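Working notes for the structural subgroup meeting. M.R. asked for a predicted model of this chain before we commit to crystallization trials. I am recording the input and output together here so anyone reviewing the notebook later can reproduce the run.

Input as submitted:
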Amino acid sequence: MDDEKLYQVALSMVPGIGDVTAKTLLSHCGSVKEIFTKNKNNLAKIPGIGPVNSDKIKSFKNFSAAEQEIDKCQKHDIEILFFTDKKYPKKLKHAPDSPAVLYYKGASDLNNYKTVAIVGTRKSTGYGRKFTEQIVEQLAAHNALIVSGLAYGIDVKAHKAALKYGLETIGVMASGLDIIYPSMHRSIALEMVHQGGLLTEFRIGEKPDAHNFPSRNRIIAGMSDVTIVVEAAAKGGALITAEIANSYNRDVFALPGDIGKNFSNGCNNLIKSNKAHLLTSVEDIEYIMNWEPMSDPIPADDPSYDCSKFSREEKSVIDTLRSSSLDGILLDELSWRSQIPLNKLASVLLNLEFNGIVKTIPGKKYKLA
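Returned structure, recorded in token form:
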């Protein structure tokens, strides 16, 4: 058994050690195994850890539970994706509260160049369902990865439309991957495994308790370039997803609806408060995101982007811009995503501009040239 994978799963089982703390520990220790083998006093000196968390880690002995979890995943053909794995969604990685461990079953690349979340009410109307199918059909020209929550209403309609129009689709779940919720969506979930996949942060056997759904929503928003809200009441899970997407500086779009209709209130309020772009067709997304149909990512073997030529900071900037939306990102956002201080980032960007790798665009944003 892979020792590092064992320690990765074990870390997620340590009581009181959340995702942010786990990543802080990793950044200082270099590997998860080192977290468990490091001297207790040295662990306590890491900023934000202290003696309480240090004691929790050093007193953890239940590695057999981690071994059992890995065995269960292998039997169910489930991949365990740690924060540092290449397959881990890069866009989600930039979210400060992203899960340290994900469980994935499927055939899709979770780092699709264009990823679109589609969410909405469970009590959808014909208007909402028709638009969902329409926008997914239009997104087929972009070969977008469609992400949603496998719930009733708009969510499952988005998944079904993606399968219909040949797009890969990911269902993010609020339970372990062995528990399909709602159970009546089991057949569509099994189909998605072959044309997309199922993703969760919850271990096998964990039930879809109410408090798991907001956590699930942050994964939907975090791994997507764009979040579309089709129909939503004044309060609900779809609006939570939109709020999270905004907090991650991701673009949100909303379908306008009839004034006074219950499931139009949420979308209309998002648009009215400038928390979402008004959406009527894929052309609105193309304009805001600067997307062109079937545009391709920068080839990994493109000699002009040979990262071996650049410093560690320059590589970090290039990787960050590669995983960002095509309309560029602001300097402050680029700084925290790349973990380069603003006073140093300016000179790094200047050098990359001289080399024709990065360019400045209106709005004081940066993007790859």
